[in-house]
Amino acid sequence: MDSSNAQIKAKTQKLIDSKPADPAKLPEWWASWHALGDMVTTSSTSGLSAEQEDEAAASSNANAHWKGWWNSQGPPELLEGPETAQKKSKIVVWGGGAFGTAMATCAARNGHDVVMYVRDQAQADSINNFHKNSKYLTDFDLLPNITASTDLKTANENASLFMHCLPCQLTPKWLETNRDIIPENVCICSTAKGLYVETRQLLGDAMLAALKRPQPLAFLSGPSFAAEIMKGDPTAVVVASEKLYHASAVQKYLSCECMRIYVTQDVVGVQLGGALKNPLAIGAGMIEGMGLGINTMSAFVARSCNELNQLCIAMGGDAHTISGLSGVGDLMLTAFGNLSRNRTCGMRLVKGESLSEILASTTVEGVPTAGVAVYYADRCGLDLPIFRTAFDVINGRLTAKEARAALMNRPLGKE
Question: Please, are residues 157 and 113 in contact by the beta-carbon 8 Å criterion?
Fold first, then answer.
């Protein structure tokens, strides 16, 4: 096993040293890089003799070490340290909403050339001519190295990273429509927090199905209101990718004094944490709308974290992820923050507005996500009373008062 590890290290170093300067040769180089990565990070003992299997078991810690070592490797420009963040690159942001604007600003603060893809020519003209997003976060001046385009093909040219800041439910069809003008070797980092309702999939799985090919993906999540990022308030989030060097690249492109980004390979946990807190945040808004106090909200958040943790582990995520920024952190933000659209939706429901009225004026990801969360709970054999009650209120099966009684009158049990 030691000789095999030495060979892997030698092959990896040889590949790093052979990275071509000619951009035309990069796709072939990336294909070789990913092929080597898949070989290193997939362990198998099939076809081994009993003696070889024993050797493999005895060396499992060494194998884990080498897998971790390889996943920390990447093209030389990703391994040079924090100063790499200041190397000028082209970052393309898909979407001109509030969070897309915030992500563009993070990249621009690090000196990168940023292009925002928007559909509205007037919005693009406002960004290009007046350094203002005329539709979102209008009080903020944008940095001069942020430009906008309505031509996706032109915007995508020579990009080092795509920041995907489009609504979750629109994403797969949008990718399917535009996949031919999206380079397959460039990482797409999604900031959309939701589950794809049509197929009840994690968004990452739905994205790959829409692209119909392998594509480097990363997922950014955590407690992060766009307006506070724009103001420069210290913010911390996490970015996940199966290949750690993709997450590290995003980390270096976007991290700055007011934005601290952590990395992980738990793509399931980060996606679930970011998505499943949305219907829970609607529940938090209902508590606020009913005029209940901090006792109620604290109990709700604590028990919601417990349910979030159960479902994440059952789906293959890491409990550590849910206790971090993309789970508990994001839930705290949306439960207590008055900028949360999900929380606001819950408050408006309690006040008597219909769901159709609310959704006519804003996107509330927790509404479609609630049904998928209950579907996952059923498939995993989990009770999860808070998720189920939130779903019933959202869909008009229970009133807020009935939901309160249903939760508080459940059989007593052990924490």
Answer: no
